[in-house]
Each structure stands twice: as C-alpha cells, then as structure tokens.
Design brief:
Length: 692
C-alpha cells in the first residue's frame, strides 16, 4: 500500500489487500460475497435467522472502499474537487439499479403480490430518487421485519438509498476537515478526530433511538433502522480503517487471528440474531466490528493493493456480482413466493439461485463495461444518470394502465369468491369503534325492531365482529334486537399493552375506556343476552402482547398471561350476570394461519385462484386448546355458557378454505361473511334455548 502525509495507509480504490491464512486470503470481494450470501439466505425463508446483518457488513466495506478513493483524491492535489468520485459512484451504482427498478415496476402488475400493487411503483420512484428508506419508513407499518413488508418487491432498496444519502454528506465532511486541518493540526489528524466523532455520535444516536419507543412522534426502532443518521457510524467504521497510521497495522502473525475473529463475529450474529432482535441498537456492533476486523486483518503496508494473481474462488465470484445479486434476488423471491404460496422456502431458494443469472448478465453487460471505460467525463455521466433516474419513473407511468387492465382480468377470475374477502358489517358500518357502548347513540349499530321481545348485545374485538352477520340473522329469527359494539382490544378486565408500540400508552387507555365504559353502561341497561367473543389465543400467544392484572398491578408475559386473562374475563362475565343478563362466550375458532389472498399476484389469480388459498388442514391442529380451556373456566366460574361453532366451520374435523364456492376465511384469522351467515341456523337454536 501507499503511504501519504503522516503515514496513513491508502490504496487504489479498486485494490484488494490480502494476507496468507492457510491457503485462504481475506479479500474485500470475498467479504462482499459473504455479506450478500448472508442476506440472501435470510430472505430465503430465514434459513440464516440473522443474515440481515450482511447489509451492515456492506456498509463497512463501502466506507472502506470509498474512503480509500476519497483520501487518495484529497492527498493528490491541493485543488480538490470530487467530480471524479461522483462520476465513478454514478457509473457504479445507477445503471444497474435503474435497469432493475424499471424491469420490476413493469413486471409488478402481473407478478407482485396484490397487496403490494399500491407501493411497488412508488417505491421504485423513491429508490430512483435516492429516498426509498424515507418512503419505506412511512409505509411499512411495523418496519422492515413486518410481515406485510415482505410483499414489497423493492423493499431491499432502502439500504442503497442510505448509502447514496451518505455519499452526498461524507465527502463534503472529509473535504471540509481536510482543508480546515491543513491550516491547524494537520489534515489526517483532523480527519481522524472527525471520523471518531462521527462514529461516536451516530452510534449513540442509533442505540438511543432504537430503544426509545417513540422519538418526536416517530417510531424509534423503525427510524433507527432506516435513517442514515443512525447508520452513518457503520459506514464511518470503514473510513476509520483507511485513516489508521501504517505503524498501527497488525503484524503478519496477528492478522490471521483478526480475520478469524472477525468472521466469527459476523457468523455469530447471523446465527444468534432474528427478526425479534432490536436492531440496529447495540446488536449492530457485533457484525460491524467483525467486518472491520476482517478488513483490518487483511490489510498490510506493502504491496500494490491488488492482491495476488490467482484463480477466483466462489466467494470472490459472489463478491464480484454481489451488487447485482443484491438488486435482483429479492424481487424474484417475492414474485416466486407469491406465485407458489404455502410452499415454504423451496421457491425462495430456487428464485435466489435463478437470480444469479440476471445478476451475472448485469455484471457483465452493465457493470464491467462501465467500470472499464476510460470515458468518465462528467457530462456523459450526468446524461447516463438522468436516464437511470427517469427510467423507473417512466416504467411506473407505463405500469399504471397495465395495473387497471390486469386488475379487471383478476377481478373476473376472483368474482365467484369475492364477497368472502369483504370486511364484516361491524367494520363497514362504523360499529368497530373505540367509543364505549354508553357513549354511542342509542340506535347506533342496532338491528331489529325497538319493540322486539328480547335484546342481545355483541361485545369484543374483531373476533366478535366476524359473528356479526350470524347474530343479525339469528336475532331476526328469534324476534330479538341486536346491538354490536366491537373494537380492536381484548374484551377482558386486564390492562392491555402492545409491546410493538413501545412508549405509546394511547392503546392502553383506549382499550380500558372501551371495556370498562361498555360494562358500566350494560350494568345500568342490561340486555337479555350479552355475547362476548375475543381473540384469546392471539393475546396469549403473541410476544408483543403483555397483560397487567388491574387488581394487583402485576405485569404478565408468556405463560403467565393465561391466569390474568382468565380472571379478567371471569370478572366481566360476573358483572354482567349480576346485572341480570344471560352471558355467552363464543369459543375461539380454527384459523388457517399465515395466509392472505393479498399475498397472491394477479397472474396466479387469473391462472387459478384456488392456488392462492390455504391448503385443507385438520381442526385439531389449528385450534388453541389452552385458550379454549381458559374461556371455558372463565365462563363457568362467572356464570356464562359457551357457544362453539367449530364443528360447523370444519365438518368432521376437516377445514377446507372453500365451501359452496365461497371462502370460509376472509384472512388468516377471521371467518368470512358467507361462513358467518352459514352459522346463523345453529346460532338461532342456541339463542332460542337461552331466551326460553
């Protein structure tokens, strides 16, 4: 490597620094190959649960590579402009990105999941304008790890936007530091202080924001994940390696230990981390330090920086195509998962391997020729960059009418079961509201004649709402008046905490107000029958839900939630019984699990809509017996009876997604409107018995 100024080490931008290690030479390209492989395996059905840290490795490598180029530019001339740097970056990044964005946006009307139709073109435009991370922050709800985010075939472009945004800032900071330091303490000393300060400030911000819940009304963990401010320290870690004085470089004996340690850190994070890991936070330190150690251990003060002339190994080849593979693997995976739903990781792995073909073609036809050309003048590059930015925008304009055409074709194919995906009547009419029953208008969400012989009230969350059509018909059959009051809260006398909304107490307050307010109203205006249904199994089984016993203040998670929920439900039942109402608890229903018609592409719907439906399953495999037992004990102790419709939903214990050309479930958790109506005769018999 070449020494400049006070002996910081600098190498040619495209060079590679290597040292022997039992026949294996650590290499920037090999590290890139390792990083992209980790990301791909993570996306391929979480085969590597923490493989997403490959992006953090990329950030460190990028910081190191462009740091060498920038420092070489700074040290070569007193009149520094970064035109050549930006020309190089534009030619390196934009053509391959622009092509992928345009192709994916054009294919999306047919191949992207229906649920991503509204965001694919918008994400493509945002990515072309270097702002995909900001757009995705606003539109992905629970963030990068949110299951709904997996539907977006351009989700992966967030990291490219972060890098591009840093490219606009980092060179300017280095140039200012170089010029300022030249007049005072020395340029390299100033740059070292600047980079250390950047690492410190960005890392502190990343950790603080990751664990802060909400920051200025923004979701902290999601903000930390997508923001260039909280990612800059990873990039700066690579810069810091470039600025190390030559005398600080490791000896030949120590370098293999550093490389092995670094690879161990990266490997450990890919195996130990998962979607549940708060990230970046403190967790990002392990892969970033690992990447830095590998680069540091592979850096020496001698040689030309180009590595040895040797036959390329598979990891180095992957490193060569890593940028293009990163671009192409995710869209093809999303398309494959949508067209072959419920097929596990197999189509994802096939898509990952298949994506190597467009990646290799992109590398050979676009990346290599542009990198090899000597015509790197600014004006042609600006024209090329403009085309690369305009292409995805033009593709989005072309895709808009295609969406309309394809949607109409899919609508015809989907028509026989279309009403099975509609929202239930409580949601469509505003009866699913956080307003307590007593604060609603008297006739609000009421079906039946005011002079009806009996009154019935349906209470609970969306799991109660799925029985709206059933009870409307049953109440009419039994000359009863029905009022519906549902919301998105567990109907139990508990304090509900949604850990996915850390720091936000609004859901807790709203839920308590709805449950207690509705019960207090019904104690003074008791109906003949109060029907309760709630997603007991969901609240007990999901880690993001915590319950607090209001009588003791004890916070319960995991298996401890069961007794708290049961006691809370029993108290509500007992209060309604004491007021004179007969009380019914509807038992939890079997659910098809991770399935959603919106995850299917229009092409699959047109070819055969039934391929987009969940496969048949056995009822015993999909009913939460523990939740059923909790509901049964609470009902018995409180004085209620239990209604169970599972035999009607799954005759003979077999659950099929379609019956009589109608969907049985509208989504992974709720029965459909046709199924709800089909339960009305059984509900009428139950209601007739209880009203006698």
């Amino acid at each position: 490597m070449v020494a400049v100024a006070d002996r910081a080490h600098v190498a040619p931008a495209e060079g590679r620094a290597t040292v022997p290690l039992r026949g294996f030479r650590p290499d920037i390209q090999a590290l890139r190959g390792l990083a992209v492989l980790a990301v791909v395996l993570y996306h391929a059905g979480r085969l590597l649960p923490g493989g997403f840290v490959g992006v953090d490795v990329f950030f460190v490598v990028s910081g190191f590579v462009i740091g060498r180029r920038l420092l070489a530019l700074l040290s070569s001339s007193d009149r520094v402009t970064f035109a050549s740097f930006y020309v190089h970056r534009a030619r390196r990044i934009l053509p391959a990105l622009g092509l992928m964005l345009a192709v994916v946006v054009l294919l999306a009307p047919l191949l992207a999941p229906i649920g991503a139709n509204s965001v694919t073109s918008s994400t493509g435009i945002a990515a072309a304008l270097f702002s995909a991370n900001a757009y995705l922050y606003r539109t992905t709800g629970g963030g990068y790890f949110d299951p709904a985010a997996d539907l977006n075939p351009l989700l992966h472009t967030w990291s490219l936007s972060v890098e591009e945004q840093l490219y606009f800032v980092i060179p300017v900071l280095l140039l200012l530091g170089w010029r300022f330091g030249r007049r005072r303490w020395g340029s390299l000393v100033t740059l070292r202080v600047l980079v250390v300060g950047l690492i410190t400030a960005s890392l502190i911000a990343s950790v603080w924001v990751s664990y802060s819940g909400y920051v200025g009304g923004l979701n902290g963990e999601r903000l930390a994940f997508f923001s260039p401010v909280t990612r800059a320290w990873e990039f700066a870690a690579g810069l810091a390696l470039v600025l190390l004085p030559v005398q600080w470089l490791a000896s030949a004996k120590v370098r293999p230990i550093l490389v092995v340690s670094g690879l161990s850190f990266i490997g450990a994070s890919t195996l130990l981390y998962s979607d549940a890991t708060v990230f970046p936070g403190v967790a990002a330190v392990l892969p970033v330090v690992g990447a830095a150690l590998v680069i540091y251990g592979g850096t020496s003060s001698g040689g030309n920086g180009h590595g040895s002339q040797r036959r390329k190994g598979p990891m180095i080849w992957l490193g060569d195509v890593s940028y293009s593979w990163y671009l192409w693997h995710w869209p093809l995976m999303v398309f494959a998962a949508a067209f072959w739903p419920a097929s596990g990781s197999f189509p994802l792995v096939v898509a990952a391997v298949a994506s190597l073909l467009p990646a290799w073609l992109s590398y050979r036809i676009i990346e290599q020729p542009l990198r090899a050309t000597t015509k790197t003048r600014a004006r042609p590059t600006l024209a090329l960059a403009g085309c690369c930015i305009v292409a995805p925008v033009a593709a989005a304009a072309v895709a808009a009418p295609v969406y309309s055409l394809v949607d109409r074709q899919a609508e015809r194919a989907f028509a026989p079961i279309r009403d099975g995906t509609e929202l239930h009547v409580d949601a469509r009419t505003g009866c699913a509201s956080s307003t307590p029953l007593g604060d609603r208008a008297r006739r609000d969400c009421t079906w039946g004649d005011e002079t009806a012989a009996a009154s019935v009230v349906l209470l609970g969350d969306s799991y109660a709402g799925q029985f709206s059509e059933m009870l409307i018909q049953a109440a009419e059959n039994e000359n009863a008046r029905l009022q519906i009051a549902t919301t998105s809260c567990p109907f139990s006398d508990v304090v509900f905490e949604n850990d996915a909304l850390r720091g936000a107490d609004a859901p807790t307050r709203v839920c308590r107000r709805f449950v207690l307010g509705s019960i207090e109203y019904l104690e003074t205006h008791p109906p003949d029958v109060a029907v309760i249904a709630t997603a007991t199994d969901l609240y007990l089984n999901h880690d993001w839900v915590a319950l607090i016993d209001p009588t003791t203040g004890r916070r319960a998670t995991g298996e401890a939630k069961g007794p708290v929920f049961e006691a809370g439900l029993e108290r509500l039942v007992a209060r309604l019984r004491a007021a004179g109402s007969r009380v019914v608890v509807i038992s939890v229903t079997p659910k098809p699990g991770a399935w959603d018609i919106r995850e299917c592409p229009n092409l699959a719907v047109i070819v055969d809509v039934r391929r987009c439906l969940p496969p048949p399953f056995t009822m015993s495999d999909r009913v939460d017996r523990a939740a059923q037992a909790i509901e049964g004990r609470a009902a018995r102790l409180g004085g209620a009876e239990v209604w169970n419709f599972n035999a009607e939903i799954c005759p003979a214990g077999r659950c099929r997604p379609v019956r009589n050309d109608a969907l049985v479930w509208r989504d992974p958790s709720h029965i459909s409107i046709p199924m709800s109506r089909a339960l009305a005769p059984t509900a009428s018999r139950y209601l007739d018995r209880i009203l006698r």
